[in-house]
Amino acid sequence: QPLPNEELIIGDTCEVSVSVTPVDPGNGQQQVVFTARDVSALKVANRVRANFVSMVSHELRTPLNSVNGFIDLLLQGHMGDLNVEQKKYLGYAQEGVQQLMSIVEDILFMTRSDVGQFEIKQQEVNFRVLARQVVSSLEPQARKAGVLISKNIPSPTPMLYVDPQRMKQVLNNLVTNAIKFTPPEGTVTIGARPYNDQFVMISVTDTGYGIALEDRQHVFERFYQSNHNQQSKMGGYGLGLSIAKLIVEQHGGTIDFDTTLNKGTTFYFTTPLYRGQSE
Q1: Residues of the chain whose pLDDT is less than 70?
Q2: What is the spatial order of strands in the sheet that 255-260 belongs to?
Q3: How far is Cα 67 from Cα 8, in angstroms, rounded to an integer?
Q4: pLDDT at residue number 115
Q5: According to CATH, what is the number of the domain 123-272?
Q6: Which of 196, 232, 235 is nearest to 214 (CA)?
Q7: For residue 232, what pLDDT is reported?
Q8: Is the model's pTM score more than 0.85?
């Protein structure tokens, strides 16, 4: 089996990726192929790209936050009373702005993770409280789609050892995805059950369309868009699940899914239990 790649720093500026692969020439002698690749330019290019994306994202976030804030003021009536139609169209505008803000944040997050700037700050977190916060924020979207969100969390409530903001992001991405692919009068259920003495299994189950066979191997790929008839109509930009996978793995867990066409999908992941780690 090939040995894992290693990166070596030679001098002050040169970075080399080294790999060693055993080969069998068939003459009874053991040989290896030694490969060294200069990755200095690639590393510099990645840093430049990360800095550029970070700068652009910051420049986009500032005006988007302003627009979102002023729309909020208008909807709250600070500039005078609005009629029903005006509120409706301002609501559409706010949804579009918030979607743009979400895209910018996700792209910035992925870029930072690529250059090793992604860190998690783990602490004791009550999963029931976390799930309630996610459900509360997504209920308007679920009502609009005609989908019911429910929780199936055992007692006593699992106490997690996670980064609360990042774990909320995972749950938010999975539930948002489930709502999107569930038809009206369907349900999305957030669940939890023991996995072992160190991890708990968290799940998001929907009664939606299911994932087509040809799409299943690509589910966690960045920017992947399904060409399957029903899924292709749902939009999105293909980052939510890849971000969820990245965060789960950063916590030492795993993520996977089960799906049945026209019956639904369950995404499930493991995350560490709180066992006094921060004490």
Answers
A1: 1-13, 39, 42-44, 46, 49-50, 53-54, 57, 115, 117, 227-237, 277-279
A2: 148-152, 187-194, 199-206, 264-272, 255-260
A3: 47
A4: 67
A5: 3.30.565.10
A6: 232
A7: 45
A8: no
| Per-residue model confidence (pLDDT) at position 2 | 53
Domain spans of the chain, in order of start: 6-38, 42-114, 123-272
pLDDT score at 227: 62
Q: Centre a 10 Å sphere on the Cβ of residue 127 and count the other Cβ atoms it contains.
A: 24
pLDDT for 35 equals: 81
Single-letter amino acid code for the residue at 132:
R
**Per-residue model confidence (pLDDT) at position 8:** 60
Tell me, what amino acid is at 258?
A: D
3-state secondary structure the chain: CCCCCEEEEECCCEEEEEEEEEECCCCCCCEEEEEEEECHHHHHHHHHHHHHHHHHHHHHHHHHHHHHHHHHHHHCCCCCCCCHHHHHHHHHHHHHHHHHHHHHHHHHHHHHHHCCCCCCCCEEEEHHHHHHHHHHHHHHHHHHHCCEEEEECCCCCCEEEECHHHHHHHHHHHHHHHHHCCCCCCEEEEEEEECCCCEEEEEEEECCCCCCHHHHHHCCCCCCCCCCHHHHCCCCCCCHHHHHHHHHHHCCCCEEEEEECCCEEEEEEEEEECCCCCC
Q: Counting Cβ atoms within 10 Å, is residue 61 exposed (0-12), middle (13-18) or buried (19+)?
A: middle
Query: Which single residue is written with the structure tokens 């793995």?
Result: 249
Place of tokens 């994202």: 57
